[in-house]
């Protein structure tokens, strides 16, 4: 990221120089709807994030300038000082969550800017939280460990931004490591780095620029289907608490006892947990063909069994297959957002040109293209 604009603006506004910090957004290679089924996810930090220059200002006020939104906010650090601008809630929330855990903060000046597309599913919000969590922890010597910083980001979303998120995004942003994905159990925060060196391939997101208005609550319905299937299996297999503990044979035993819909949802959930394990094995061997097959299988499962895809996302998936892309799938919970694609370098240009042209022809709008590299997590830059 280009630090010049942030540095110049900081100097202009505050007449001084501060410390530069950066935290990334993230992708998730595989493992969708696995977190609440007792499985793992496989995110990685990307080379796009939020850059902030920060300097304590000797007052009890935070003075923050968003370079991208060209908006300024000034606020105190007590609970009743919540600023109006929604972007500032992330910074205020991080400060509050740190203080609740005993941190001694004071006023500071900051200018920040980012290149994670907002609301595209790459978690610009986690990048923002992690940048300030990581920075303030260092500047004020708070002594939080990385897992605490993850929780501070998550609780910021819960308590100050109205988003009831898990921990994957913040975890990837804080723990990210170049050349590695993170196999993460979201319920225990146990994790393992898995090597990711896709030589000869590029990773690219294609944004369907569509979000479907959801009339009922499809996520809760999926979750309940999985819980019912797990409960049915547990009658004969009491060790099964969540579908992550079950296999397809166990599911076959209860096939007639649960609804067809619950059976389909559970099939996906069990397969997806196993696919993630299998994908980690393939990554350790450098077998990217198998990785790609699993990524396609996830898309198929999300589309046909879990039924969380859209016409636009299925269309992008078909184009990827036609263009010889190694793996392609919906990234995120579904119903819109991006596909993530593992593309052989020599097919990259053709794929992007074809996807953009065909998508535009069919839906009358251009998909957005975000090439990404798996990179390091939160860090100080100077
Ligand atoms: P995402 O999927 O990208 O995390 P969210 O809706 O959770 O989408 O978070 C996006 C919000 O985070 C924005 O509306 C804004 O308030 C804040 N934000 C993210 N990036 C920036 C940025 N570069 N400048 C200002 N605010 C940002
Ligand atoms: Mg977010």
From TrEMBL:
One Gene Ontology term from the biological process aspect of the record: galactose metabolic process
Enzyme class, spelled out: transferase
Keywords: ATP-binding, Carbohydrate metabolism, Cytoplasm, Galactose metabolism, Kinase, Magnesium, Metal-binding, Nucleotide-binding, Transferase
UniProt cross-references to PROSITE patterns, sorted A to Z: GALACTOKINASE, GHMP_KINASES_ATP
Enzyme Commission number, as recorded: 2.7.1.6
Domain Galactokinase N-terminal as annotated: residue spans: 9-56
Highest taxon in the source lineage: Bacteria
Domain GHMP kinase C-terminal: from-to ranges: 281-356
Entry GO MF terms: ATP binding; galactokinase activity; metal ion binding
SUPFAM superfamilies with a match to the protein in the record: GHMP Kinase, C-terminal domain, Ribosomal protein S5 domain 2-like
Every GHMP kinase N-terminal domain range: 90-177
One cellular component term from this protein's GO annotations in UniProt: cytosol
NCBIfam families tied to this protein: gal_kin
Family to which this protein belongs: Belongs to the GHMP kinase family. GalK subfamily.
The name this protein goes by in its record: Galactokinase
The species this protein was found in: Odoribacter laneus YIT 12061
